[in-house]
Amino acid sequence: MKKPEILAPAGSLEKLKIAIDFGADAVYIGGGRLNLRAFSDNFTNEEMAEGIKYCHDRGKKLYVTMNVFPRNHDLTGVEDYIKGLYNLGVDAIIVADPSIIMAARTAAPDLEIHLSTQANVTNWMATKFWYEQGVKRVVLARELTFNEINVIKENIPEECELEVFIHGSMCVAYSGRCLISNYMLGRDANKGICSNACRYKYYLVEETRPNEYYPVIEDDNGTYIMNSKDLCMINHIPELIKSGVHSFKIEGRMKSEFYVASVVKAYREAIDTYFENPEGYKFKEEWLETLLKISHRQYHTGFFFGKTGEQNYEGSSYVRDYDIVGVVKGYDEETKEATILQKNRVFEGDEVEILRAHTPYFNVKLNKMFDIEKNKATNVANRAHMMFKVKVDTELKENDMLVKGKRVLEL
């Protein structure tokens, strides 16, 4: 049995490196054109070249998303863009529209093509159809159950790869084909500028009483009738592996370094543990605890086991009990000083948890804080991206993350 690929989101070059360092086998990114995350820090050609080298030097892969549904004017220059991606050395492009497939087959016949979940593939005949059009891998619709995935796997050529989402935000629309944002705000979700209108709080209004709002009550918080829970399959690694799916995909190109590191770390450890001893595999609570520390909505298993209450009616806000307060940029073994890039406010004397690849969380205390830019001692790192030093007895490594529970005021 082949170990499945962990495919991680990389909304920036920094997140790409973190994803790879924490155990991802491949990353997917957005380039300058035709991807569904217009507000992400999409890669320039220079950043993409650096990212490709970083991946390939470590035996990893990089895929570029081109999964919008283009209008006529979007297709101008698309073949040149695809040829440029091929020349840079990307391992595959992720597409949703047949026009991009046609352009890719003309511009770069040897470039691997993956079909996006936006294409809504829900059965084996559609999977086989796309494979015969030159698609190497199909990212299945998120609405499928394990049983449906098994039927697809049994009825397609062995060379056709399957990919499924295993973690992250879900969309109320069918595999993301949503028009609510476009209708309400003129921001087209299928062009990468979704406003997340499904997360809004809605009321009923009677047409002759335009200023009277009637709540659609679920509880005292109001109603969130289109608000999906987050997908989380960390408790079901054996079922995922036995499904024969080639790639496990993590959602979240717009999310933080802390999110990317934590999710990749948890699934990397779980999958590796399974393959070390499939018969003796036991779930470890620490994997779920890692995922509970990141910003998330209520977790759920999506549609894998059928429709079992995937909507979150209690509110649209995230659970944010922990913050990343810094990232280690260096450590001097002689002076026991760590150089930290600030991410959120942190104080001298704080005890923080360290998130490190392939290592359980551990605690350190931050002593003797020093502001590098102002060249003086300080008791707080409170400027965005402030560089500071602290005394830490335990050796820290580059890209270790400092994580702290949020302060709770006792009244």
Automatic annotation (TrEMBL):
One of its GO terms (biological process) is proteolysis. Keywords: Hydrolase, Protease. Residues 320-402 form the Peptidase family U32 C-terminal domain. GO terms for molecular function: peptidase activity. InterPro entries: Peptidase_U32, Peptidase_U32_C, RNA/ubiquinone_mod_enzymes. The keyword Cytoplasm does not apply. The keyword Nuclease does not apply. It holds the Pfam family Peptidase_U32. It comes from the Bacteria. Belongs to the peptidase U32 family. This is U32 family peptidase. It comes from Clostridium sartagoforme. The lineage of its organism: Bacteria, Bacillati, Bacillota, Clostridia, Eubacteriales.
